[in-house]
């Protein structure tokens, strides 16, 4: 459910203000609230060049860039298709972890992947039915 909200909630805001403003404000809010929630001042991070480079990569490439591209793509193809395409990511992550890292693959992993895909399909079918009814009424 939260995954569906993650995709669907910002859609109207993005239409009104654009994806960069919505992403920027969302990340700013998260950046202000999250450190307080986890009490970030209790952790000591050595400020080495490697740590700063890793932090930069996580923030700008792994989060800001990835989320911007995701929302731009979702705006182009629609929330339903975007969520269907994005549902492949956790499945791909598990498979690549097994292949590259030599991690074990358990039955519960398969069950989780199936549940993820089924949830997205169910949401998509509900939206498809609603859109079809709306088109018929017009």
Automatic annotation (TrEMBL):
Membrane topology field: Multi-pass membrane protein
InterPro entries in UniProt: EamA_dom, EmrE-like
Keyword Lipid metabolism carried by entry: no
Keyword Glycoprotein in annotation: no
Residue ranges occupied by any EamA domain in the UniProt entry: 2-124
Keywords attached to this entry: Membrane, Transmembrane, Transmembrane helix
Pfam families: EamA (PF00892)
Localization per record: Endomembrane system
CC terms in the record's Gene Ontology section: membrane
Transmembrane spans: 20-40, 52-70, 82-100, 106-129
Source superkingdom: Bacteria
Family statement: Belongs to the EamA transporter family.
Name of the featured protein: Drug/metabolite transporter permease
């Amino acid at each position: 459910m939260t995954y569906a909200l993650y995709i669907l909630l910002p859609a109207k805001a993005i239409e009104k203000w654009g994806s960069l403003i919505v992403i920027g404000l969302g990340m700013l809010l998260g950046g202000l609230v999250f450190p307080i929630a986890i009490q970030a001042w209790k952790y000591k991070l050595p400020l080495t060049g490697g740590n700063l480079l890793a932090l930069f990569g996580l923030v700008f490439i792994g989060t800001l860039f990835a989320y911007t591209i995701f929302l731009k793509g979702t705006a182009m193809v629609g929330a339903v298709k975007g969520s269907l395409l994005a549902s492949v990511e956790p499945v791909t992550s598990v498979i690549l972890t097994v292949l590259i890292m030599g991690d074990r693959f358990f039955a519960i992993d398969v069950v989780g992947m199936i549940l993820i895909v089924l949830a997205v399909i169910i949401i998509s079918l509900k939206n498809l039915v609603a859109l079809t009814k709306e088109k018929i009424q017009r």
